[in-house]
Amino acid sequence: MSNILILGAGRVGATVAEQLVYEQHNVTIVDDNPANLAPLTSKLDLRVVAGSASSPTTLREAGAADAELLLAVTPTDELNMVACKIAYQMFRVPTRIARIRNADLLAHEDLFSEEDGFAISHTITPAQVVTDYLTRLVKMPEALQVLDFANGLVQLVVTRVTEGAPMAGKPLTAFNEVLPNTDRRVVGIYRNNRYIRPDGDSELHAGDEVFVLAESRQMRKVIGALHVVESPIKNVLLAGGGNVGYRLAKALQKDYSVKLVEADPGRAEWLANELPGALVLHGDATNETMFEAEQIHRTDMYLALTSDDEDNIMSALLARQMGARKVISIINRSRYVDLLQDSRIDVAISPAQLTIGTLLAHARQGDIAAVKPLRRGAAEAVELVVHGTKNVSRVIGRRVDEIRMPAHAFLATIVRAGKVIMVHHDTVIEPDDRCIVFVHDKLRTREVEHLFAVKLGFF
């Protein structure tokens, strides 16, 4: 259990606080607006402090002297930076994470150093996290989720089995015949929202939601065995030219035909100057006439990226009704995401849920390289680095079938010295292996982290 101090009770701060309280950490959250704190105290077991994140007095009152981790996620980059500096210089908080949105600041890493800068241990840019995630979905339209591990060497992809796919109606053992030279590991099957732990005899049905791990360079072939291959995305229409819309258009404009719709005329003019490879339109994405004029029926992928959940939902549903092939919507309210994920919107994304994995990796026990929420946070995939020797580790030097994994936890893949190894019962864990574990029930994640952490006394 860690003492964690969160500065900023906005969407990201509140979502992270809820998750950390759920994991039984001691959480204190600071915000200068008491109205932002009131809803948290009524539903979460945490401490709140009203005050400025850059005030030494406020930080002292919030327990900075005893904090092991500080998350500065206020809406202002400069405030987050100053808070980290004060937390380090006055209270020696060991780990300090700041949300930084300004690309100009991010380009100067020396600003974040402990010696001469603002003493920021790690920076996080939610808009870039979301942009990278959406870019992967554009490149792999058959997927519901695409997650990278081990610096991009391994991917976990979630897809639905479709009628006519090579693996539809077959047991998992048939993978060896369908893809004889491609190693992969199915770590989870969900049928009618019920989890099925996969084994060789598990038969895949059309409509099943399948979680599969493979080398990134092999993943497209693996997906082709589960889902009838769709034609590549060519025409993309984005609604909303905010931080995410701008970054995504910039990332896609060289390889795709990109249109971006922005309601604010001044912002639209700025975007047009900054995005020479995209067509920027001033208009309302909930307007049926605009969709007709832009031939939405010829659009391969429509992404609703405004800051208004209702507008995103309505425009995505309208785009689908008018013929867009695939629709994706950003939804900030997590309850909306649960309602819409299996509707006519192909993928509903919570930016806060995407961001939280990056933050959780620093709050967990052991050497956690990545935490990736799945199924709207109900499940997780965790990348752990194992250290030590057989004497101080519960896993090093042991075969996989000798390791007592918690129920609903699935050790699937190891990356060893840049080589991807799909785990078998006789695979032996070695020091510095990067182990990727799928956990169906995130309540069991702590048990997994404890299992892979070195025993007390190693350091």
From TrEMBL:
Keywords: Ion transport, NAD, Potassium, Potassium transport, Transport. InterPro entries: K_uptake_TrkA, NAD(P)-bd_dom_sf, RCK_C, RCK_C_sf, RCK_N, Trk_Ktr_HKT_K-transport. The keyword NAD applies. The keyword Phosphoprotein does not apply. Residues 144-228, 369-454 form the RCK C-terminal domain. Residues 1-124, 233-349 form the RCK N-terminal domain. NCBIfam families: PRK09496.1-1, PRK09496.1-2, PRK09496.1-4, PRK09496.3-2. This is Trk system potassium uptake protein TrkA. It comes from Silvimonas iriomotensis.
